[in-house]
Amino acid sequence: MSVSLRGELRLNEAMELADSK
């Protein structure tokens, strides 16, 4: 569960970064 949550958080950050670019 913790790992899944961390992965989702990381994905969200990557998506935001891509959107900002």
Give your account of this protein's structure.
By secondary structure, the chain is mostly helical. 90% of the residues lie in helices and 0% in strands. The protein is built from one helix and no strands. It has one helix spanning 2-20. The N and C termini lie far apart (31 Å). 0% of the residues are buried. The mean pLDDT is 88.
Our estimate of the beta-strand percent is under 5%
Mean pLDDT equals 88
Distance between the termini: 31 Å
Overall structural class, as computed from helix and strand content, comes to mainly alpha
Largest sheet: none
Helix content: over 70%
Cα gyration radius (Å) = 9 Å
Global geometry: rod-shaped
Number of DSSP strand runs = 0
Low-confidence runs = none
Number of H/I helices:
1
**Helix-strand string:** H
Care to give the gist of this entry?
This protein has 21 residues and is mainly alpha-helical. It contains 1 helix and no strands.
Summarize the topology.
Elements: H1 2-20
Summary tags:
21 residues; mainly alpha; 0% strand; rod-shaped
